[in-house]
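Sample pair:
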Amino acid sequence: MADAFPFELVSPEKQLVSGEATQVVVPGAEGQFTVLANHAPFLSTLKPGILEVTMADGGTDRIFVRGGFADANPGGLTLLAEEAQRVEDMDMGALDQSIQDAREDVTDAKDDSAKTAAETKLAQLEEVKAAL
């Protein structure tokens, strides 16, 4: 059995997960990374994506996260997310609407920086939908 480590996922609304995990796959801003027990100290911002958690009891969870950061160290992993919800609880209609709104933001952008920001958001939302 793999070693377990403390894992917490907190969003502004609530603490979503608090327990012992054996593996967490995190959508980091620079790419996806996996945290195991005794991870070297590491701090990363999050990009919108799917967090894949394997708990010490064998249970698994897929959680959508958007924004925030991950703090991994030998003592465990803490994720503070701007938004987090279990994939099975997601409203796919709302995700589709967010994608449509982002497409409109790209079209309506007044300057290059606004257009780049809107294109990034759209790409991230489409990546999340593809992962689901």
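The CA atoms of residues 54 and 60 lie 5 Å apart.
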